[in-house]
């Protein structure tokens, strides 16, 4: 009987160094990365998000994504282009005008009166927001801290 082994999961290094610029019609994101080409890139561009995966650059896989863009874009008029020393993501704006940031900022609601009775609720809400908006490393760190706190590992150190 032949035993099938699942292929290893693809791991990505999150790209964190970038710059961006805009005009009235487009937002351009510049990601410094040498050694890539169009064939190594996989993109998923939606009206409110985009995900860029770059495979096998110096033996590593890279990823940059924004799950909630500041404003909506036109996916079929947005492009990702590999240059010799960088990747350029060009996002066509749905509406003309300036963006204050690449990421959509959720409006923070004022804490309900019951939070005064439970001061931990505000901290939990802040941690939830950090988790929701964070990258993979942030999520792993928060999950580990949560598990350690639940199992009592954090409070018992002397």
Strand order of the largest sheet: 1-6-5-4
Estimated share of beta-strand residues: 25-35%
Order of helices and strands: EEEEEEEEHHH
What best-fitting shape do the alpha-carbon axes yield?
flat
Biggest beta-sheet profile: 4 strands, mixed
Estimate nothing, just give the exact number of structural domains.
Answer: 2
**Cα separation of the termini:** 54 Å
Rg calculated over all Cα atoms: 20 Å
Write the CATH fold name of the largest domain: Immunoglobulin-like
Mean pLDDT, rounded to whole units?
Answer: 84
Name a few traits of the molecule.
158 residues; Immunoglobulin-like; alpha+beta; 8 strands; four-stranded mixed sheet; flat; four-stranded antiparallel sheet; HSP20-like_chaperone; 22% helix
What does this entry look like structurally?
Residues 13-103 form the CS domain. By secondary structure, the protein is of the alpha+beta class. It folds into 2 domains: 13-92, Immunoglobulin-like; 114-151, no CATH class. The protein is built from 3 helices and 8 strands, in the order ββββββββααα. Strand 4 (41-45) and strand 5 (50-57) form a beta hairpin.
